[in-house]
Design goal:
Alpha/beta-hydrolase, two-stranded antiparallel sheet, alpha/beta, AB_hydrolase_fold, transmembrane helix, hydrolase activity, about 400 residues, 12 strands, about 15% strand
């Protein structure tokens, strides 16, 4: 075969390969326009990542016997949401004998359990409502170390309630934006009306997809009359909205979803019309801040992101931080002006990252950009423990170890 023939062959088969890739990508785009395929790609709820462990046996995830009480919550539209009530380790130690006497497994009436009474009957207890990210379950990946980090600052007082959204793990139903809002409402209702914990003793913690859910539900309650505002929120690896995330997201870290299309704004804007669940955190976070400022309600919000997060780029947090800050003033502030303010007043901790706080008469908005932590590992790091304690102690200086 001559050199010319070899070149022609390469171009021929290269062209065929390119045509196949283009065809496959076109099929992917077509599938993404369907509701069912979108649901699986956006939420990844069928990927459990529990490595064949039984979710009804929390001990297999490293907990002590009956440190976790598994039970079901019910949403207003009848879905069953699988949940864990997790006792902080020091509180468990103090009551170990009584807890060991109780049967293990899913309980039908959590109010009868000793662990629930320790939460409900202690006026100094605190409760963290945990909103996990896409894929997996309450027991997946770095979520278990995350629970420990959340309560580590006060291991005798800080309880955690974590749950699986509809369609995840053992929860019934299929995930959607409207449905997951009902799930979040059911969790808040349980915390305030069943466990009897007032909002100022409830902290919202969320990561990744969970940040969109938690900001949405926090905004919903802030808009009520009278408004309901929780002690604060810690948002790890949040994203601006579903469309913006999709424009840079790669499935399994390799397969681009809409990033090639995002280079053509007109086409990308057209495709956004087919996106069923918008999850516009940028709009909701702005409305939440604006509402609290107008109502004179005290609020605290911490946004945390690692620069080496390859799932959700950390620029999402800097943009959300700007949307939040912009909502605190009637005249607003430009993104560039905020960046100038950061250069003047942010704290630079070198390899540990940087911190910027924005104070108003009613609220504190804090941005922490870490150098390392990835998307999930960060959840078990001390930065999470300190963020939780900072918010609780801001409301009650006596809340210490």
């Amino acid at each position: 075969m001559t050199t010319g023939e070899m070149v022609a062959t390469i171009f021929k088969y290269g062209g065929i390969s390119a045509a196949i890739l283009v065809g496959l990508y076109a099929i992917l785009l077509g599938l993404l326009a369907t509701s069912t395929f979108q649901t699986h790609v956006v939420y990844l709820h069928k990927i459990q990542m529990t490595w064949f462990k039984d979710l009804t046996v929390p001990e297999s995830f490293g907990f002590m016997r009956n440190q976790v009480t598994p039970f079901f919550l019910e949403s207003s539209d009848g879905e069953k949401l699988y949940a864990w009530h997790i006792l902080p380790v020091e509180l468990y130690r103090r009551h170990e004998a009584a807890l060991l006497e109780e049967p293990v497994g899913i309980v039908s009436d959590i109010t009868s359990r000793h662990s629930f009474k320790l939460l409900r009957d202690d006026p100094n207890s605190r409760l963290i409502l945990h909103f996990h990210g896409a894929a997996g379950t309450v027991g997946s990946g770095y979520r278990v170390p995350n629970y420990r980090a959340l309560s580590a600052g006060q291991p005798g007082k800080i309880h955690v309630l974590t749950f699986d959204y509809r369609g995840f793990g053992k929860s019934t139903g299929t995930p959607s934006e409207d449905g997951m809002m009902l799930d979040a409402h059911a969790v808040v209702d349980w915390a305030m009306n069943i466990a009897g914990i007032p909002p100022n003793r409830i902290l919202i913690f969320a990561q990744s997809m969970g940040t969109a859910v938690s900001v949405a539900i926090s905004n919903y309650f802030a808009l009520r009359s009278p408004p309901v505002v929780f002690a604060g929120a810690v948002l790890v690896a949040p994203f601006i909205d579903a469309a913006t995330l999709a424009s840079s997201y790669r499935l399994a870290g390799t397969i681009p979803l809409l990033s090639p299309i995002a280079r053509f704004p007109v086409l990308f804007n057209y495709l956004q019309h087919f996106l069923r669940d918008k999850w516009s955190t940028k709009d909701r976070i702005a409305q939440y801040i604006r509402t609290n400022e107008a109502n004179g309600e005290k609020y605290r919000m911490t946004l945390i992101h690692a620069e080496d997060d390859y799932d959700v780029p950390w620029c999402h947090t800097t943009t959300l931080f700007w949307h939040a800050i912009n909502a605190t003033t009637p005249v607003g502030i430009s993104y560039d002006e905020l960046e100038e303010r950061k250069n003047e007043s942010k704290q630079d901790f070198g390899a540990a990252g940087s911190v910027m706080e924005w104070h108003t008469e009613y609220g504190i908005i804090r941005e922490e950009i870490l150098k390392t932590g990835l998307h999930d590992v960060i959840m078990g790091n001390p930065v999470i423990t300190i963020a939780v304690m900072r918010i609780f102690q801001a409301l009650d200086a006596s809340f210490t170890c």
